[in-house]
Amino acid sequence: MGETSPSDAELVRRAQDGDVQAFGLLVERHQDYVYNSVFHLVGDEKDTEDLAQEVFVRAFDNLDGFEGRSKFTTWVYGIMLNMVRNYWRRSKRRNMLSLERAREDETRPDIAPAAETDGPLRATLRGEDVAAVRSAIAELSEDLREIIVLRDIRGMAYAELASVLDVPEGTVKSRLYRARQELKELLEPYFEETQ
Amino acid sequence: MNTECRQYQERFSEYLDDALDDADREALEAHLESCERCRAELAALRRVVDAVRELPVLRAPETFAAGVREQLAARERTTERRLVRLIWARVLPVAAMFLLVVGATFLVSRNGLFKPDAEEPMRMAMQQEEQLARQAPPPEASLGSMPEVKSELSADSAQDELAVVASGESQASSVMARESRPMARNGGPRLPEPGFAPERLLGQEKGVGSLALPVTDAPGDMVTTLDAAPETDEESRYPMARRDAPRYRRGMEERFLFRQAPVGAVPVPPLIHQVLEVRTEKPTKVLARILGAANRRDVHAVVEVGKDGAVNLYLGVPGEAYTGFLSELGSTDESAEQELRNTGVADGVFLDRMVELYRARRQAAPEAEEQTDWSGEVPPSLRPGGHSPPETVNLQVCIRAESNAARQQR
């Protein structure tokens, strides 16, 4: 065996041949980002764990149908979106006030932000800023929340976004613009107060 | 806000993502130099985008991966039960013929070793078969009436030789079968003559053992198999096989193609070159993995359940791909005991070499890595001098359930 870590494609191939350990490696490799995305989409931490686990279980169930035409992550995030949308349909709650309650537990260390930025040096958000931003994301409509989470939290490129959301790239751009505009309007009063 | 500013502000999002082409970017930057309002708007938008991007990533709890494994294990247990039920529901009506006749043979031909009431097991087997017939199969799997079975012994019954006469509703589905299972000198089972060749009827090859199945085009006259192969020219080798079987719902069953046997029909695999015996705690899991590997490599497979509960797969593996396929089988279950051996019909250096390599591979001998690439291609050293693989290697995999504890005591 090689010394370098196997690629997602290699692990998928092994998992498709019945190597459950290989699938376990895929889970460990992607669990934080899937978990984080699900959390920012649904807002409830208890539901997040169940949903995020179910994403991987569903991926395993359907692994034979994954033909490698897209990246594994693209495929998994597609599954994640379907499950989150089903969750929204089932859930009567449409606001995510529980976001703030969920973050009261600070015992687990957070890893560095996943998304790239081409701006100036990143400033670390204060705790109250984090809560405010998350609350604002929670107030977005579901389609705008999806694109903000996948683009600015998960760091997905436009082309991959188009694939996961199954929309043209032009729609990705316009939807992203609307989502960011709406967030700006939600957060402007907060930022003005805290300046 | 004027129209020009609105047009530029609508591109701010792409600008922040560095997604504008050079011309658009330069035009926007030129506008920003002269428009304080747009500069303020861009700064506000950038602040929001940066704030979102700076959100700390919430890490999955430490129990997350274990929770996924637990759910998969729970599904596997459920699927194993479903797969076992499926095997029994699909294969048993055909395999019951084996149970019926082999069970009868044991009792009748080995007098003194068993209870005097030789009829009881026959009655039980018949009752079991009738119970199976009453179970609700899918509509396309209707078996029609159960065959009337008689069991006869040939005059020279020193071996486990018997004849089964079964007649279904239509003449086309009546079969005559004689099965002879002398043990080969090398210890491997010798199975009947290859193929479903309809012209090879009983009586033309006495004592050898052949199973003739007439070829018909009548609906329902298909062979029951757990067939992992997609449509290929292999169909000519199994003239009874139809490739229009429905797929099942999601899950393990979806990987297999099922086709329904005609009444009284028994699938006959070709002569077996090698036998792989597997003893494992997880027989259904091993079965599923092997069939998965077979499916991925276009290998035709037939599954039957033996009288002792062992699951036998009969695989027709293209010779050129045999090395690679064996290497996959070797990794199906590291804890299983696996032994590969040649049968009495195995011939040639190639198959001997495969036995050696398989043994070395299982023992993780370092030289095994050097001697073959296990990439699915026949090593060049085996090609010259008649050492090429046969066109197809017929492999029987016999999977038996055995706990690790029991194996250690053995």
Alpha-beta content class of chain A? mainly alpha
Structural class of chain B: alpha+beta
How many angstroms does the end-to-end distance of chain B come to?
A: 87 Å
- Mean of the pLDDT scores of chain B? 59
Taken in chain order, the helices and strands of chain B follow as: HHHHHHEEEEEEEHEEHEHHEH
Low-confidence stretches of chain B: 88-130, 135-269, 365-378, 380-386
Instruction: Report the sheet with the most strands of chain B, covering strand number, pairing sense and barrel closure.
Output: 5 strands, mixed
Largest interface: A-B, 63 and 47 residues
What kind of sheet is the major sheet of chain A?
none
Cα gyration radius of chain B (Å): 31 Å
Q: Which strand order spans the largest sheet of chain B, edge to edge or round the barrel? A: 8-9-11-7-10
Low-confidence stretches of chain A: 105-109, 111-123
Measured on Cα atoms, how large is the radius of gyration of chain A?
A: 18 Å
